[in-house]
Each structure stands twice: as C-alpha cells, then as structure tokens.
Design brief:
Elements: H1 6-21, E1 39-47, H2 53-66, E2 74-78, E3 94-100, H3 103-111, H4 113-122, E4 126-135
Antiparallel strand pairs: 1-3, 1-4, 2-3
Helix pairs in contact: 2-4
C-alpha cells in the first residue's frame, strides 16, 4: 500500500469534499448524478394533533404509498433532527423530500391518481403544509 503524506491526504480529502458539494457525487441511493434542471420538492407537514404518534404513523403510511409513482427518483420521509441553532425550523412534524428529473415529472406526480388519493385520504391529518420547490442550477 502506498503511503501518503499528510499534505497529499489533506489535499485529496478537500477535493473529495468539495466535489460532493458541487454535485459530482451521485444522489444518495439513486446512482444518478445531480444535474442542472433536476427538480427538488420538499414538503413540511404540521399535524392537527401535534405529538399524536397515531396520526404521525398514518401520515407516514400515506407518504409511503406515494413511492409507487415512477417519476420519483428519490424519496425521503423525515422528522425534525435534534439540532439546535436559531435558523433551524423544528415546528413541523413530518417532512417529505422528493427528487425528480425535471419539472415535467413533478407535474405528473402532482396530477397522479396515487397522489390525488393520498390528499383525499390523509389531508384530514394536517393543519398546515409548506412546500419548497427548487431546481438545480
């Protein structure tokens, strides 16, 4: 095994870190590299009954049904992380993070029967929803 100097090691580590930040690394778990025009859809849900484990579980169950929509490249369901900084919003109960190849695929998702059924069957659980949509530049 070749021995690296500390300087070489740090240089390589810095390059790999920056490369990941610039989108050279694939989207986690998708095998696809981020590229200009990729569409990110991030939804935050506030439950009508904050702290209700049952309602949270039902909402997560519903979100999992949406994963059947083939236009979704990557989906993540989350909850507030145990981080503490003034800029962090922690008032929501569940987040839904989606990646699409483009805006058109996200629009198909919005009109998809599975998505419409999700809204019909689960919207009674939430009090507030905020969506952040963005495209890679």
């Amino acid at each position: 095994m070749k021995k690296l100097s500390r300087r070489s090691f740090l240089g390589n580590s810095t390059f790999l870190s920056v490369a990941g930040l610039l989108g050279f690394a694939p989207l986690a778990g998708s095998g696809k590299r981020a590229q200009k025009g990729d569409f990110v859809h991030h939804v935050y849900f506030w439950l009508k009954n904050p702290g209700s484990k049952e309602d949270k579980a039902k909402l997560i169950e519903g979100l999992n049904t949406l994963k059947a929509i083939k236009q979704i490249q990557l989906a993540r369901i989350g909850e507030p992380a145990p981080t503490n900084r003034d800029v962090i919003e922690k008032g929501y109960d569940v987040s839904w993070l989606l990646f699409f190849d483009n805006l058109e695929d996200e629009e198909i998702y919005q009109k998809h029967p599975v998505h419409l059924k999700f809204v019909e069957n689960y919207s009674h659980l939430w009090d507030k929803v905020i969506v952040y949509d963005s495209v890679d530049v």
